[in-house]
Amino acid sequence: MSGKVHAMDLDVTQEQMDAWHSGMYIQDAMPQLSDDEREFIMTGITPEEWDATFGEDLTPEEWDATFG
How far apart are CA 2 and CA 52, in angstroms? Predict the structure, then answer.
């Protein structure tokens, strides 16, 4: 989102990555990771970039109203 390259050191096995790439939901393949860590794997967006772009703690109703 910012155009910057970011890296995170995450406790993930190759088997977990393979399971996710094969179609398993990321939260099932990597339950030990936080929501922020899983978002980073999926999109490369850091928590700071997320908050700067979307704000903090949107309710489901606010999310739907904003992003449809």
Answer: 10
Give the domain extent around 21: 14-67
7 occurs within a structural domain: no
How many domains, in total, are found in the chain? 1
The pLDDT tens digits of the residues spanning 31-67 come to 999 999 999 999 998 888 888 787 766 667 776 776 6
Q: Is residue 18 part of a domain?
A: yes
Q: Is 0.70 surpassed by the pTM of this model?
A: yes
